[in-house]
Design goal:
CATH class: Mainly Alpha
Shape: globular
CATH superfamily: Jann2411-like domain
CATH topology: Jann2411-like fold
Length: about 180
Amino acid sequence: MSFVWTPHRFAGGALALDVANSVILRFDAARSTDRFEVREQLQGFSAAAARFSAERTLFGDLAPVGSQEQATLIALREATDRYFRAQVMGAETDALLAALMAAVARALTEASDRTSLLSATAHSVIRLAALPERQRLKICPNCGWLFLDRSKNISRAWCDMAVCGNRVKASRHRRKKEDVP
């Protein structure tokens, strides 16, 4: 199956969230897809992140993850998702924060260099964890992705209006038309 990293795949607003969102339909076991399972897709992510990520100006070109770093990136991705998702949902996060910081420390220790995707993701997690406005972190009600709401009045509802917003609105419109006698 052919796959292309598009700007929509980087709707998270932070590299750490874009990495966490690399699991499509995370909570639907029948349809869930891990975009990093295929090595070529993982390697393509580095180049696409350098072009599309909201933090691209901080990192510039990103070196792909080496085969020895892949497991560390996946562990960081999962810790990132668990912590920030729990935070949005208002759950207790102290233990999750400790696990996330341990994953960050491991990533920074094992990263081949400062320009690697692994290192950049770890730095993105640190910046995101220090975000003073927690209400800006949200979960898309359509796809379940984590995203930063950077709108002025913090009213953004979907990770990407052009994709998830349109799907929700089209579905709502279809239901209305079906209900009309």
